[in-house]
Amino acid sequence: MGETTETGARPRLRHCTLVALAGERLAMIVGDERFELEQVQGTRDAFLRMKRYLDGRHTLEEIAQRSDVSFGSVRTIVGQLEEFGLLRRERPAATIAAADFLERVERSTRMWRAQIGYHRLFGMLERGEASRDLIAGLLLETYHFVRLAPRHVGAAIAHCRDQAMAELLCGYLADEYAHHGLIAASVEKLGIPREQIRDAHPVIGTLSLVNMLCEVGRASSLGYLCCLKLIEASPEDEAGARGAWREIARAAGLDADVFDGLMRHMRIDVGAGHAGLLEQALARMPDVPADAAHVAINHMHDVKHAFDQFHDQVIQYYTDMSNYVPRLKVDFFSL
Fold it and tell me: What's the whole-number mean pLDDT along residues 84-113?
């Protein structure tokens, strides 16, 4: 049990998130399923070395040679992964049923949103390790991200070839157009004047995230709607967010209402159903072209990683005591 003799096979893992647990244990999260891997023999590092070759390009023998793990161990591990349904099973088809596509996107959204939440920035916030500047920086960059939303929504509308999708996106643009003022209200509660907020310049991670969404909007309407599914708050998110942000405020020694503007923005977005735009767009479609589905999922995955970069940049800039807060533009007279 748990062994495969198909030595010519080139196994590929389904997309997963690996989370280090105590000792040598690992958790593997695939969609909304969680598998805990306990050490029986070997080390966690040996498993991770082997895992990198489960990419559909290497035979079992090649995996064993390159990872310095015995062929027997590789065969057993791959067999167990297959038994649990963790290996990719490709079924070539011209179309994918819309219901299947939505179900897979929903599960992946939960996984990737959780992965975004694993970023060390949120651990710092929860443990009360984030400085006032870092909290202000996160709010400032969130303000910029919301303020610049018309750029990527506009790009998506301009390149959308489906009239019904374009109308959905026009409604989304109208909803989001002035929401940055709600975030600015939270920034002001940290003592930064509105004029300085308006004149502030975003860090590169924020601009990169916005530009990536612009590119997705130009390249794939379906991909753009998938990305909105990832970045827009759901009712479940709103339910736990208020208490979480109040606890962050308490841990940082801030007034309990400092994040009220942020929460109001979330509440309005949830009420408008922004996280459900993809479902609305596909309601009249029985299936989705497979090529378009693959492209859309890849865009969604890239944007997930762009959020990691965004949070990296927030930490990098706003923990440097020499940097200006808010960030200033560099103009001709600055040279």
Answer: 91
Report how far residue 198's alpha carbon sits from residue 196's, in angstroms, rounded to the nearest whole number.
5
Token pair listed for 137? 């920086």
pTM, entire model: 0.89
Domains and CATH numbers, the chain: 17-83 (no CATH), 95-334 (1.20.910.10)
| 3/230 Cα distance (integer angstroms) | 37
Query: Residue 47: what residue type?
Result: F
Report pLDDT for 40: 63
Question: CA of 263: how far to CAs of 19, 115, 239, 259, in Å?
Answer: 29, 21, 11, 6
Burial of 158 (C-beta count, 10 Å sphere; 0-12/13-18/19+): exposed
pLDDT tens for 142-164 read 999 999 999 999 999 999 999 99
Q: What share of the chain is helix, strand, coil (3-state, %, to 5)?
A: 65, 5, 30
State how far the alpha carbon of 223 is from the alpha carbons of 173, 181, 249, 265, 277, in Å.
Answer: 17, 28, 35, 24, 12
- Say if residues 197 and 326 touch (Cβ distance below 8 Å): yes
Peptide bond preceding 92 in cis form (omega within 30 of 0): no
Token readout for 295 is 């492209």
